[in-house]
Design brief:
The structure holds 2 protein chains of 2 kinds. By secondary structure, chain A is α+β, with helices and mostly antiparallel strands. Chain A is about 40% helix and about 15% strand. A 4-stranded antiparallel β-sheet of chain A has the order 1-2-3-4. Chain B has helices spanning about 5-10, 15-30, 55-60, 80-90, 140-150, 155-165, 270-280; strands spanning about 40, 70-75, 95, 105-110, 125, 180, 185, 205-210, 215-220, 225, 255, 265-270. Classes of the chains: A alpha+beta, B alpha/beta.
């Protein structure tokens, strides 16, 4: 005797209670605080802010805690919260040239005005597990406090630009000053570069990384040099209509990467270097470099290059598949019941098999 | 989070009024051009893409406090995702909810059209995963939009023809493509093709695809034709059985496996339809009379 499967509501409640318990883990172990996550898992926080498209380290840390460390789930929480926020206006473009850099390196010149600043990087560390970290409350000697210096750090690519060796980035015409907003308008193709960059900066780090990697391995190969990578703090200014002038409303940490790529020239253009651009919230350097490579690959039309049919050149492919919140939602929806569709497939397969069977029998009889 | 907290923190029906207006404009455009996919700036919702965010956004944009809201998934009110969506609107819109098709003013559905005919004034909101009927033939959105604009549907007919050549019939059993008012080929969402004839109805039908950022609509009493050929006409299909609970012979049935010896039973997928029949005294082969239960 079949009993209609009722009790879905109760099951959901119980599952969520269990989730709460699982999130907390063993109660004998101290609970993680949001400030601890913000301070000690800062790179996870940065990724959640970047792909969540919301700059708020406390909320991102809270989301990571709530999501049990599942970063895509945390990004989802931030995105869902972000939708409900009213939009007061748009900031002015930030001046990354005036960034107070914690890290700034160029791979194209041995030294540059302002210097090479390594900053807090994993580069050149030996990836050996540091068992000393396992011992809690270990006192580490405080580093000698050097005076914070923030010398002028002019953009490296501008040196090339002065010689005309690199393609000039054309400033948008005043009429197009306000680029489209990916989160307020449906994505329609072909997408202008600002829209592509918006999609890439909030795109999944893994996806953008793999796309970038594919261009390095030969799918639309275009050898990139890291012209400059800088990480630091910039002021965000907005024009307040009631005041009639611009004021700084806050600061954000950004990672910016400009690549210098080869370009052999075309019928209309002399040989010249070209650029790819990446700009991401927080210290997110793998993502910013990847973004610059993919940006460059997507610019093939603009430079009159060949369509090599590479995935990273295909704007529709990249833009429609880089968002991990869209991807994970659609992927995981196949867990939902599909028995109505499946039932009709079942009937169809049975019917076709029955008919084929009958036809075979008839043939045998004849 | 309890209901008071949520309702205090968010606008009525979750979305802000600006967003609702944007969605309503897309809905009106969709109703004006039946079957045409209107791009809209879909928002991130607090449930995942692919789990009904398009339908949820439409419901949020059209619900008013006086509405009575019903949510079904696979025809049933008590499937987990239907429960989750119904609860969401109970929290953020405090609308009255119902399981009775006849009494609902707005019905959000996934994969089914209710058995009972909708009457004028009722709205059926569909959750749509892939709004583009040509998508499985042509992966590029740029191309498929062009094909719709030029009414270039030859590819679809070739596909249906190849099905017949290979299998002796059209091998599409759900999300069966239709032509709306003689113009746009439309995906009716993954409803079984059994439901296709009901797409011509007195209610308003709104389709929302959140992830794909598309809205489309069928106004009441609009012509909706399932694609076919003169010599291979469209055929409805269901399990050739009666409901084992209410005895209905004309409703769409789910097959339920009851033991590991191949035992199975068939029950109405539309749980409200089945309940209504049982309450009216109909009893299926394995059912129990209502008063005895």
């Amino acid at each position: 005797m079949y009993v209609a499967v009722k009790g879905g509501e109760k099951a959901i409640d119980k599952a969520h209670e269990w989730l709460d318990e699982a999130r907390r883990g063993d109660p004998a172990v101290a609970e993680l605080s949001v400030p601890q996550i913000r301070e000690q898992l800062a790179l996870a926080v940065n990724r959640v802010m970047a792909e969540g498209s919301l700059y708020d380290p406390d909320l991102a840390a809270l989301a990571i805690k709530q999501a049990r460390g599942d970063l895509i789930e945390a990004i989802f929480l931030i995105r869902a919260y972000r939708t409900t926020l009213p939009r007061f206006g748009y900031s002015l473009p930030v001046d990354t040239g005036a960034m107070e850099c914690d890290r700034r390196i160029s791979a194209t010149f041995k030294d540059v005005p302002g210097g090479q600043v390594l900053g807090p990087t994993f580069d050149y560390t030996h990836r050996l597990l540091d068992f000393a970290l396992e011992a809690e409350r270990l006192e580490r000697p405080a580093p000698e406090a050097g005076a914070a210096v923030h010398p002028e750090m002019p953009r490296v690519t501008e040196f090339l630009n002065k010689e005309g060796l690199i393609q000039d980035e054309v400033a948008p015409a005043p009429a197009e000053d306000q680029p489209d907003d990916l989160t307020r308008q449906p994505l329609e193709l072909p997408a202008a570069r600002p829209l592509r960059l918006q999609a890439l900066t909030r795109g999944d780090e893994g996806f953008v990384l793999s796309m970038a990697y594919s261009t390095q391995r030969g799918y639309a190969k275009n050898h990139p040099f890291v012209g400059e990578l800088r990480i630091g703090t910039v002021g965000v200014e907005a024009e307040i209509p009631e005041l009639g002038f611009d004021i700084e409303i806050g600061e954000v940490v950004l990672t910016e990467c400009e690549t210098v790529n080869q370009f052999l020239g075309s019928k209309s253009e002399p040989p010249q270097f070209t650029r790819g651009y990446g700009l991401v919230f927080g210290q997110t350097e793998r993502k910013a470099i990847s973004m610059a490579l993919v940006d460059r690959a997507l610019r093939w039309k603009e430079f009159g290059e060949d369509d090599k049919g590479a995935p990273a050149q295909d704007e529709e492919f990249v833009l429609y598949h880089c968002d991990n919140i869209q991807a994970t939602g659609f992927l995981e929806h196949i867990k939902l019941p599909h028995y109505v569709d499946f039932q009709s497939e079942l009937e169809l397969v049975r019917k076709i098999r029955r008919e084929a069977d009958e036809a075979r029998h008839q043939e045998a009889a004849e | 989070m309890n209901a008071e907290q949520i309702s205090g923190e968010y606008n009525f029906a979750y979305l802000d009024e600006q967003t609702k207006r944007m969605i309503r404009r897309a809905l009106l455009k969709g109703l004006a051009i039946p079957g045409y996919q209107v791009p809209f700036a879909s928002r991130e919702m607090p449930m995942p893409y692919g789990w009904g965010t398009g339908g949820v956004q439409i419901s949020a944009a059209i619900l008013v406090p006086e509405d009575r809201f019903k949510v079904i998934d696979q025809g049933a009110d008590d499937t987990t995702n239907a429960v989750s969506i119904r609860r969401f609107f109970e929290k953020v819109a405090q609308v009255e909810t119902t399981e009775k098709t006849a009494e609902a003013t707005v019905i959000q559905t996934r994969h089914r059209i209710p058995e009972r005919d909708l009457h004028e004034g009722q709205v059926l909101v569909y959750q749509v995963p892939i709004p583009e009927p040509l998508r499985f033939l042509e992966p590029s959105e740029v191309e498929t939009r062009k094909m719709h604009a030029l009414e270039e549907y030859g590819l679809m007919h070739v596909k249906l023809y190849e099905d017949i050549a290979r299998h002796g019939e059209i091998a599409t059993s759900y999300a069966y493509p239709v032509k709306v008012e003689g113009r746009y080929v439309m995906d009716p969402s993954p409803i079984p093709k059994f439901d296709n004839p009901k797409l011509e109805m007195a209610g308003i039908q709104l389709f929302g695809a959140g992830r794909e950022q598309r809205i489309y609509a069928i106004p009441p009493h609009t012509q909706v034709v399932s694609l076919d050929f003169e010599d291979y006409p469209f055929q409805r299909m269901k399990a050739p059985k009666c409901c084992d609970l209410c005895g209905a012979g004309e409703s769409y049935l789910d097959e339920v496996i009851t033991d590991d010896a191949g035992g199975r039973m068939y029950v109405c997928s539309d749980t409200d339809f089945c309940r209504e029949r049982r309450e009216a005294g109909h009893v299926g082969a394995l059912g129990v009379a209502e008063d005895a239960a």
